[in-house]
Write a structure and sequence with these properties.
- There is one protein chain.
- By secondary structure, the protein is mainly α.
- It has one domain.
- Helix content is 65%, strand content 0%.
- The protein contains three helices and no strands.
- Helix 2 packs antiparallel against helix 3.
- The protein is elongated, with a radius of gyration of 18 Å.
Length: 81
């Protein structure tokens, strides 16, 4: 099983793909209890990693508001809607 450090190195897309694979394995019902617990823990870590990546991306986007001519003109909060 990979460590938290390994997860921290994953891109958002890689982590999401791994998380989707874990969900599929758990939903299949063909995983033994001990393995289920281990992959569930990894899934929780992957979920947290994805959430951090999304939050970081949102923070970066909030800082970029293009003004006339495409030059950065300040900051503006994204619509969470």
């Amino acid at each position: 099983m990979a460590t938290k450090t390994d997860i921290d190195k994953l891109s958002f897309e890689e982590a999401l793909k791994s998380l989707e694979e874990i969900v599929a394995r758990l939903e299949s019902g063909r995983v033994e209890l001990e393995d289920s617990i281990a992959i569930y823990e990894r899934g929780a870590a992957l979920k947290a990693h994805c959430e951090r990546k999304l939050k970081d991306a949102e923070a970066r986007i909030e800082k970029i508001v293009l003004g006339p001519g495409g030059a950065p003109a300040g900051t503006e909060k994204l619509d969470a809607g």
